[in-house]
Amino acid sequence: MGLNILLINPPILGIHSPFKLSPTPPLGLALIATALEESGHNVTVLDTVAESPNEVVFFKNNIEKIGLLDEEILSRVPPITDIIGLSCMFSDNWLHTKLLINKLGETFDKAKIICGGEHFTALPKECLEEAKYLTAGVLGEGDEIVKNLVYHFENNIELENCDGIAFKKKNKIFINKRRSRIKNIDDSKPPAWHLFPLNKYDIHNFSYGVNHSLTLPILATRGCPYECTFCSSPNMWGREYYMRTPDFVINEMEFLNKKYKVNHFDFYDLTAILKRDWIIEFCKKLISKNLNITWQIPAGTRAEVINFEVAELLFKSGCKKITYAPESGSSKVLKEIKKRVKLKAMLQSIKDSNKAGINVKLNMIIGFPKETHLDIFKTWFFLIKCSWYGAYDALPGTFSAYPGTFLYNYLLSTEKIKYSDNYYYDVIKSSSITGSPNYSEKISKPFIKFYFWFLIFSFYFSNYIFRPIRILKTLVNLISRKYNSRAEQALGRFLFR
User: Fold this and answer.
1) HSE-up of residue 208 (Cα within 13 Å, Cβ side)
2) What is the largest CA-CA distance in the chain?
3) What is the pairing mode between strands 12-14 and 56-58?
4) What is the model's pLDDT at position 201?
5) pTM exceeding 0.85
6) How many CB atoms lie within 10 A of CB 274?
7) What gap in Å lies between CA 30 and CA 188, rounded to an integer?
8) Per-residue model confidence as pLDDT tens digits over 88-143
């Protein structure tokens, strides 16, 4: 008959800011739900954010909590639940998630409570120590691991030989060896979106990127072959990079389009476009399907293979927006953070993408530990060149040290970070430039704040100077509230809050 399993997408924490991202459908949790259903278990989902996105209460230190109240969450847990699983992808949410785990454990003492995601993978020992009622958690890619973990629970098998988990036993913490990655990801079934309240994401227009219709996330690849020092991907996924065949990705898009009327997709890949042959084949086959859908890459991708030929195919296949992630305009900083990007090639790719009609956004970061004033000046100059070549959107962020990253460990070793609740408050406040921490060894916090606003103003001012027609387009988009960039979205939130 299988076990009765409840998966919870917990409330999120954040600072009130026009720059903050919208809640998004939890793709990882949906893939875990699929894996458990495939194993014959009775799975239900409680998406606390989608169920109550306007339920905003203060948590601590001017931090907002968005989603169902804890009492409402407890009241919605079926009494016969055998296992409660929670997702904690982002460290921003851990302060509340651990409190929720303990409330669940106190109320449902017969249920096993498990957790997964990038945060747990980065800090399994700390999570198991701080969440008293947390039984075990998944390390890394969870599809197969969680099935094996639940199998051990179901058959009362000791957890010592369950690879890819960390667990508690008699108040002792055990961290097992990591499980090898799934190589043939074409075998993975589509996410179990039938368990989620997708209509509520549609009503509230929630997605990672800028969109105007029901949007769902999708993956064409898993992992990333690079090792950027500010990114937790190497710890979460390793450096193995596996690609689905274009047909499988397109079939999933077609299935979701027909079943749920999804006509826009956000590609959540860590590095979506890496091989020229793959993306050309994907675009041509998607065009031939004539699905009348659009898609975008909001998280960032490589630019090396995107010349005008590829950009034109991307646009014709429905890709209207793409994000490049140079992070810095300084070759010295790029070398320090192990960001293997060629800035000159990226400028040409921006030019080709713009010519093809694609809206180009840039991900930039300032405030790296060893960054200097000169490095930020080079980033500014690079941004102006990007604006000239056709980049449409660029909202720089300030560096935040996330667990599981090389730079987090470096700052911990130099005592620039001390692990405590205050560290988590700093992580949450990183989305607010006025409250974000400063980890720079060369530049003071007032200067970082100045550079943040200077880069934003310079980029968009130059954009309007280079393309005056954009002033009219922005006004039209603000009035209609149909935004075409993150900047317009942020400005709209500020004006109409």
Assistant:
1) 21
2) 68
3) unpaired
4) 82
5) yes
6) 18
7) 12
8) 999 999 999 999 999 999 999 999 999 999 999 999 999 999 999 999 999 999 99
Q: Point out which residues pair with 8 in neighbouring strands.
A: 46, 86
- The pair of structure tokens assigned to 52 is 């109550």
Residue 18: which of 497, 360, 363, 490 has the closest Cα? 490
Q: What is the structure's pLDDT at 446?
A: 92
Averages of pLDDT over runs of 10 residues in the chain (497 residues) are 94 79 87 96 96 86 90 95 95 95 96 96 96 96 95 95 94 94 90 92 69 83 92 90 95 94 90 89 96 88 89 96 94 96 94 95 94 97 97 89 94 94 88 78 94 93 92 83 74 68
User: Rounded to an integer, what distance in angstroms lies between the CA atom of residue 166 and that of residue 177?
Assistant: 9
- Domains of the chain, with CATH numbers? 4-175 (3.40.50.280), 207-466 (3.80.30.20)
Q: How many other C-beta atoms are found inside a 10 Å radius of the C-beta of residue 155? A: 7
| Dihedral over Cα of 201, 204, 209, 210: its sign | positive
For residue 426, give both structure tokens.
Answer: 């700093």
Q: For every residue of the chain, which 3-state class applies, written as one string? A: CCCEEEEEECCEEECCCCCCCCCCCCHHHHHHHHHHHHCCCEEEEEEHHHHCCCCEEECCCCCEEECCCHHHHHHCCCCCCCEEEEECCCHHHHHHHHHHHHHHHHHCCCCEEEEECHHHHHCHHHHHHHCCCCCEEECCCCHHHHHHHHHHHHCCCCHHHCCCEEEEECCEEEECCCCCCCCCHHHCCCCCHHHCCHHHHHHCCCCCCCCCCCEEEECCEECCCCCCCCCCHHHHHCCCCEECCHHHHHHHHHHHHHHHCCCEEEECCCCCCCCHHHHHHHHHHHHHHCCCCEEEEEEEECCCCCCHHHHHHHHHCCEEEEEEEEECCCHHHHHHCCCCCCHHHHHHHHHHHHHHCCEEEEEEEECCCCCCHHHHHHHHHHHHHHHHHCCCEECCEECCCCCCCHHHHHHHHCCCCCCCHHHHHHHHHCCCCCCCCCCCCCCCHHHHHHHHHHHHHHHHHHHHHHCCHHHHHHHHHHHHCCCCCHHHHHHHHHHHC
